[in-house]
TrEMBL record:
It holds the Pfam family FA_hydroxylase. GO terms for biological process: lipid biosynthetic process. PANTHER family: STEROL DESATURASE. The keyword Transmembrane applies. The keyword Endoplasmic reticulum does not apply. It comes from the Eukaryota. Residues 177-300 form the Fatty acid hydroxylase domain. It comes from Erpetoichthys calabaricus (Rope fish). The lineage of its organism: Eukaryota, Metazoa, Chordata, Craniata, Vertebrata. This is Fatty acid hydroxylase domain containing 2. The chain crosses the membrane at residues 28-46, 78-102, 136-154, 169-189. Keywords: Membrane, Transmembrane, Transmembrane helix.
Length: 334
């Protein structure tokens, strides 16, 4: 009887695994496909309006790149460092500057009313924030910069990252699809590795000092984690694809904005939902990935899916905070 039960249970388990895998593939296709669709629509619309406004001849983006290329006299190292470090870092701090102002002052209410953990960081502890900013600056200056310097000769070996001709738009879309998949795999498994009990308290515990994260905390990490989990996952894709620096710049900017939104602590209208990663900081052992595809496959979103946070894990298309429209259940009195 025991053997028969085992024989019956194994096909059932295989069926469940196959079901999870197929659901994960569908979710990945939907998330990445939707992102690429909106990116394509945005690019086409913006290009058309820019061309109408300025009367630009030919392809607007190619013309813009040509102007930048000529301005720096075709100096590839300067162009590469500008695209992979200076511009993405400026975008990161510009966005986080707005968020830190809201975190420390409670204004404007248009931002702060969308706080996810309403009883946390209201306002944020100034000393704790200064510590976070110092560590992020250290990681960027002494870890990110050397990695970008090493990245340059590797990219030169792979192709011509700073050539005068931009890649076609459709090729860029394909690259972004590949980048997203690579980042999901590398970040998920490196993130889970850092949660291993033998490693967590020495490395990843630094990042989890913030159980209610804020935007700048996205790069607040132990140096080893910053290299393996923050930097490598977005770098590997462009290196493998031999990408143009313009594509890499756009990808790095999007990666930094996405991780900032995931940590910002506010579920703002018309921006990707940060509920998934915010829940990870709250509970530690759930929601390890970026897209959530591998979490579904491995069952590391099982608890999250039973919570109100999962119901709020949507794109907010109105101005009513989800903490009001989908409130937490009232706490039971002891």
């Amino acid at each position: 009887m025991r053997k028969e039960a085992t024989a019956v249970s194994q096909p059932a388990q295989l069926h469940r695994v196959d079901g999870h895998l197929w659901d994960s593939v569908k979710k990945a296709t939907f998330v990445l496909g939707s992102g690429l669709f909106f990116f394509a629509a945005f690019r086409n619309s913006v290009t058309w309006h820019f061309q109408r406004f300025w009367g630009a001849s030919g392809d607007f983006w190619q013309t813009l790149w040509g102007m930048l290329y000529n301005y720096f006299g075709g100096n590839e190292w300067v162009l590469f460092f500008l695209g992979t470090m200076i511009i993405p870092t400026a975008v990161f701090w510009a966005f986080n500057g707005i968020l830190m102002f809201a975190d420390t002052t409670g204004k404007p209410s248009f931002i702060t009313r969308y706080r996810i953990q309403v009883d946390k960081n209201n306002p944020v502890d100034p000393a704790k924030l200064r510590q976070a900013v110092k560590k992020v600056l250290f990681n960027q200056l002494f870890l990110s910069v050397p990695m970008v310097i090493v990245m340059y000769p590797v990219m030169k070996w792979r192709g011509n990252p700073c050539g005068p001709e931009l890649p076609t738009f459709h090729w860029v879309l394909l690259e972004f699809f590949v980048f997203g998949l690579i980042e999901e795999v590398l970040f998920y498994y490196s993130h889970r590795l850092f949660h291993h009990p033998a490693i967590y308290r020495y490395v990843h515990k630094v990042h989890h000092e913030w159980t209610a994260p804020i935007g700048v905390v996205s790069l607040y990490a132990h140096p080893l984690e910053h290299i393996l989990a923050n930097m490598l996952p977005p770098i590997v894709g462009p290196v493998l694809m031999g990408s143009h620096v313009a594509t890499t710049m756009l990808w790095f900017c999007m990666a930094l904005l996405t991780t900032t939104i995931s940590h910002c602590g506010y579920h703002l209208p018309f921006l990707p939902s940060p509920e998934f990663h915010d829940f990870h900081h709250l509970k530690f052992n759930q929601c390890f990935g970026v897209l959530g595809v591998l979490d579904r496959l491995h069952g590391t979103d099982a608890i999250f899916k039973t919570t109100k946070a999962n119901e709020r894990h949507i794109l907010l298309l109105n101005f009513t905070p989800l903490s009001e429209s989908v409130p937490d259940p009232p706490k039971q009195k002891k």
